[in-house]
Fold this sequence. Notes:
By secondary structure, the protein is α+β, with helices and mostly antiparallel strands. The protein has two domains: 12-88 and 101-134, no CATH class; 153-252, Arc Repressor Mutant, subunit A (Orthogonal Bundle). The protein contains nine helices and six strands, in the order E-H-H-H-H-H-E-H-E-H-E-H-H-E-E. The protein has helices spanning 10-13, 26-36, 46-62, 69-86, 104-131, 159-171, 188-198, 207-212, 217-232, and strands spanning 3-7, 155-156, 179-183, 204-206, 236-240, 247-251. The longest helix has 28 residues, at 104-131.
Amino acid sequence: MSGIETLIPAEEREAYRIRLPNFEGPLDLLLFLIRKEEMDIYDIPIALITRQYLAYIELMQELDLDIAGEFILMAATLIQIKVKMLLPKPEEEGEGEEEGDPRTELVRQLLEYKRFKEVAEDLTDLEDRQRRMFPRTYFEWQKPFKQEGREVVLKEMSLFDLLQAFKTVLDHIPEEPFHSVNAIQVTLEEQIAFIDGMLRDKQRFAFSDLMMGLKERIVIIVTFMAILEMIRTRRISVHQSSIFEEIWIVRR
Length: 252
């Protein structure tokens, strides 16, 4: 591994471990990758999606996230499907029953999960719209409503959208030609305080603005972990106006 390798003593590793209560599952990750790459869900390029899925697993392990066993099981399932598709089909004499597509069961699970997810999202949107509705009233003391400019509607985003932005930042760090071992020079608490400071005078800021001034890989990783910890403790939330647009970090 090029660049900076960090030494984290065993007794300190637990302090850097992030546990998210509403961690999305492996089917969410697969649907995210299918949407991101604009794949046909009925004809998934299994080699590509397996490679990208494993890259996200590696990224989550680097962040020391608690990865459920179901993520590892899905990785094994994808590799098994990939192997089956690579193996030559045996030539059977006579009119034997043709062997099915190894992806069929995975596609069925994805479609079923996607339907349930869309229904849940529709119900959430309905509840949100209902919460924004008020009965028609008139009071003399009420101030007239003035709309100042066009408000951008921000939507809650998934962990994988945030991981994608984080991965993009890491991919753009220039590789260093040397290999050194250093102790961590930044703590989770310091980066949480740093983010709090950025939110002191404004209600929100862009994820790219936060990451733009960070150069060292370990500082970027710990800062991202600070974001996850602040989301977990409900001190901030993250939003997007639409898929793959700018990510906004918002004070709760």
